Amino acid sequence: MAVIATLVVGADGSTTKNGTSQGVTSSADRAQFLEHRRLADCILIGGNTARTEPYLRTPVPVVVLSRQLENPLASNPLAHCWSLSPVAGLAKAIAVFGPRIHVEAGAAMISELIAANLIDQLELSITGVTGGEKRVDIDALLEAFRTHEEKVIDGTRFISAAK
Predict the structure, then answer these.
(1) Residue 69: pLDDT above 80?
(2) Phi, psi torsion values for 119, nearest 5 degrees
(3) For 27-38, what is each residue's pLDDT tens digit?
(4) Which domains, ranges and CATH numbers included, belong to the chain?
(5) I need a labelling partner for 28 at 20 to 30 A (CA). Which of 37, 46, 70, 160 fits?
């Protein structure tokens, strides 16, 4: 099984700026993100991510975990909307689509899955952006992983953390 979570944050831990992750991303982050996504059996996101980020087309099935019954990605033929917890949703996604799940959710969902020991690898991108919203503690996210590899590409710091 390979459950990989990706998260982009600004230098101050901001996960959004002006309401979306696009405000904290970089072109280097976007390239890395798309590379990981292409290898997945399924993408797992939360309802807020589905409503604020561009998921109208995806290369693989995308599962939205939301308490709202209406699918915010109804125009995406590969989208599924499940009213399940992150832990139950991940288990179902693995059973339905396969073991390679790409979690592209917000920090709260990713943190919950890390706390449940269900994330095998965290791909964290840290850009130079500051002044955004929804800050996370980068060190706390990384504590659950034994190994960390770092590289810098075009000013974006990439941390690959694994169990």
Answers:
(1) no
(2) -100, 120
(3) 888 888 888 788
(4) 2-162 (3.40.430.10)
(5) 46
Residues paired with residue 7 on neighbouring β-strands, in sequence order:
124
Helix, strand, coil shares of the chain, percent, nearest 5, are 30, 35, 40
Cα–Cα distance measured from residue 72 to residue 54, given in angstroms and rounded to the nearest whole number: 11
Q: Which secondary structure element, helix H or strand E, spans residue 92, and what is its range?
A: helix 86-97
Tens of pLDDT, residue by residue over 114-145, are 999 999 999 999 999 988 888 999 999 999 99
Beta strands in the chain (DSSP E): 2-9, 14-16, 42-46, 62-65, 79-82, 100-103, 121-126, 133-135, 147-153, 156-162
| Whole-Å CA distances, 21 to 18, 132, 144, 145 | 8, 9, 23, 24
Phi/psi at 34 (nearest 5 deg)? -65, -35
Is pLDDT of 39 > 80? Answer: yes
Give, in order, the Cα–Cα distances in Å from 87 to each of 48, 109, 150.
17, 9, 28
What angle, rounded to 10 degrees, do the helices at 86-97 and 107-115 form? 80
The H or E element that residue 35 is part of is helix 27-38
